[in-house]
Amino acid sequence: MQKKEEVIRQIEESKELHFAPSAKEYFGISLKKVRAIAQDKRIPVKEIEIAALEKGIIPLRYQRNIGTIGLKGQIKLLRSTVAVVGAGGLGGGAIELLARQGIGHIVIIDSDCFTEENLNRQLMSTEKSLGKYKAIIAAKRVKKINSAVTVTPGIKKITPENAHNLIKKAQVVVDGLDDLPSRFVVEKAARDLGIPFIYGAIAGFSGQLMTIFSKDAGLSSIFGPPGDLSVQGVELEMGNPSATPAMVMAWQVQEVIKIITGVGKPLRNRLLWFDGEEGTTGVIELEKTGNPGRKKEVKEVKDK
Fold first, then answer.
1. pLDDT band for position 226 (cuts 50, 70, 90)
2. Which of 124, 213, 234, 294 could form a disulfide with 92 if both were Cys (CB 3.0 to 4.6 A apart)?
3. pLDDT score for 230
4. Contact call for residues 163 and 189 (beta carbons, < 8 A)
């Protein structure tokens, strides 16, 4: 108790008056001072940030988050765990944004290494990272972005045998995979554990995503029941340009934030899709259970 009181005292002494872009005053604390307190008291940076937020003092790195999710929302993020399965075009970008937003613990699952074909779109890939494990490179990147985030890299291919164990500590699971059979494996494990699963996929200039809760029809409402599924789809012909995965993974991260903070309405039983080539986007309302692939309503917005 005495140690906690001393930490609070140091935080209070380290706070400084700042002005938000709206000109509203707020008390903030710099990363340098957060680190100094953490080092002095031998407490993780994340715990210092949470203690500051509980006192209404904003770590400056999160100041632009607060207007959207509030102090309590930021605390929830710092106390949360998110698993990202696949650290490529979708997953790698999602990992970066989750770290910047302040997710406290990110579990990264990927058994692959970077190749030259990844350089056009995978944010974690560089010429120097070729041949290196994606999960390890992503974990190192996270620590450079946000030292408050705990990272657990897993150099493993997800299977029906290990899926439950790999994601069991997460509050949300993000789909960064590139084949349907693996997505069904992760969806089932997440369903069994009662964890929301955020599906995302791309092909050419097009993409789609939705959030799947344990009682939802989920992937079966789009593709039918799992069975003789093709490993990959039209993306083999259409390719994976740079911008498309960025658009989908940004939406996936928004879904994570909404679920953890309780702010906003998740894309549950709703498939968000876009066609960047034609400049169209829409939401397909899906049946909540049964009748795979049956559509209730299509809402389309066209950018003319």
1. confident
2. 124
3. 60
4. yes
Other CB atoms within a 10 A radius of the CB of residue 171 amount to 17
178 and 86 Cβ atoms separated by less than 8 Å: yes
pLDDT greater than 60 at residue 299? no
Alpha carbons 51 and 65: distance in angstroms, whole number: 17
- CA dihedral over 14, 19, 20, 26, signed as positive or negative: positive
CA-to-CA dists, residue 159 to 70, 111, 187, 230, 280, angstroms:
38, 11, 11, 17, 36
Q: What is the pLDDT of residues 235-262, one digit of tens each?
A: 556 678 899 999 999 999 999 999 999 9
- Domain 80-302: CATH superfamily is NAD(P)-binding Rossmann-like Domain (3.40.50.720)
Beta bridge partners of 285: 270, 297
* 133 DSSP assignment: B
**Cα distances (angstroms) measured from residue 206 to each of 98, 168, 246, 275, 300:** 23, 31, 11, 4, 15
Its pTM stands at 0.92
Residues in the chain: 304
Q: At 12, list the tokens.
A: 């209070």
Domain locations along the chain: 2-70, 80-302
